[in-house]
Every structure is written in C-alpha cells, then in structure tokens.
Design a protein that fits this description.
About 35% of the residues lie in helices and about 25% in strands. The protein is of the alpha/beta class and about 230 residues long. Helix 1 packs across helix 6 and helix 3 packs across helix 4.
C-alpha cells in the first residue's frame, strides 16, 4: 500500500485581528482539523507576517498537523515609522508585551484555546519570543529561533523553561557569536544548530527546507505526535 498524506479542511483559517493593550494587530491563522498544537511566528527586523520564508516553514508545520499564527507585532502606522527609523524593531520589551497579549488571546479564543503553544522567532522576533516565554512559562511548550538575536533577551534567558532550538547559518558569523553567548545563559533544554553554507536569510538551495524540518521536528518532539494533515 502506498503512503499518502490526508488533506483535511482547516477548522479555522484567515486573517484575525487581536487587541492587545491599546492596539489591534493583524495575524494569519490556520488551524488544521485535528491539530494538536499551534506555532506562533514572530518575524524579525524589516519583515512582516507575509514573509515567504516564515510562510514556507509554516506550511511544513501545517502539513504535520500543527496550527500556525503568523503575526505582526507592530501596527501599520508603527511599521511606517520603523521603516524610517529602525527603532521599534529593537524595542524588545514592546514586542514581547504584545506577543504576551497574543498568547493570552490564543488561550481564550474558542478555536485555539485547547492547543499547546510553541513560538518561532526570526531575527529580533526571537528575542521577543524568549522574553514572552519567560513570562508565560506554563503556556509555551517550545521555542525555535531562525537567524535570531537571542542575546537581545539576555536579561530573561535564565528564566526560559521551554526547550529552545537556535538555528543559525554557517556563514552568519556575527549571529553565530550572539547565539553562542545566549546558549550559555539559557535555562532548560537547548540546542544550537549551525547549517553549513547558509547565510542570514537561508536563501541557499535547500537551506530553508533544512530549517523547516528542524523546526517541525523540534516542535513535534515536545508535543504528542499524530498523523499528517494539511491546511
């Protein structure tokens, strides 16, 4: 008998608007039928929830039976300001507080309340994910950082309990140093994977596929495993 992947309809899919503090943020939600966990994607500096790199990784998560939420942590007006100044993308306290609001929303939203949560952060989004995880230790089951700046969350790293996977390109020398320093401070289970030949954006052939597989397997390792489904 040939192996096959069963494609099931999503029970929740589309753009959602999440109020956290005084702002309303936009996010793209996909929860496959039978999902047993959900991964929140937090993009990095100069990117958006429409990032094709994060969407490729999210697609791999969906195919493994995991829900995904790709979110912007800045409003459209704030993104315009940040494009000119670059200041808000490094305001880790602000980004983390908004991510905490999103985590709280997911835990109270009918379609997602029963799902175990993981965080996937890129660049400065990884720092926001680590700070948020340190403050929502019960809610966050695992963390993946892609080309991230975990060092920007140095004050919170010792309080992170969730298993954390740091993925860095082998040609991204400065970011490798940042991640090695962060590794020494992280509490709990942790792993640093360096992908040979990959640069910061993992644009080389096969590099992002490797990231997707590593991230998916890390999340599933800390969740109950089930058969594959897809949005």
């Amino acid at each position: 008998m040939n192996d096959h992947v069963t494609t099931l309809r999503p029970v929740a899919s589309g753009t959602v608007r999440i109020t956290t503090g005084r702002v309303r943020l936009e996010a793209d939600l996909c929860v496959p039928e039978g999902a047993h966990g959900l991964v929140v994607f937090v993009h990095g500096s100069g990117s958006s929830r429409l990032s094709p790199r994060n969407r490729q990784v999210a697609s791999r998560m969906n195919a493994a039976g995991l829900g995904t939420l790709l979110t912007d942590l800045l409003t459209r007006d704030e993104e315009s300001v940040d494009l000119d100044t670059g200041a808000l993308r490094f305001d880790i306290a602000l980004l983390a507080q908004r991510l905490i609001g999103i985590i709280d929303w997911l835990q109270s939203n009918e379609a997602t309340a029963g799902l175990s949560l993981s965080l996937f952060g890129a660049s400065t989004g990884a720092a926001a994910a680590l700070v948020a995880a340190s403050r929502r230790a019960v809610a966050v089951r695992s963390i993946v950082s892609r080309g991230g700046r975990p060092d920007l969350a140095a004050h919170a790293l010792g309080e992170v309990e969730a298993p954390t996977l740091l993925i860095v390109g082998g040609e991204d020398a400065q970011v490798i140093l940042h991640n090695r320093r962060a590794m020494a401070l992280l509490g709990g289970e942790k792993e640093l994977v360096i992908i040979p030949g990959a640069t910061h954006l993992f644009e080389e052939p096969g590099a992002l596929d490797t990231v997707s597989t590593l991230a998916r397997d890390w999340v599933l390792r800390h969740l109950p495993a089930r058969g594959e489904v897809a949005c």
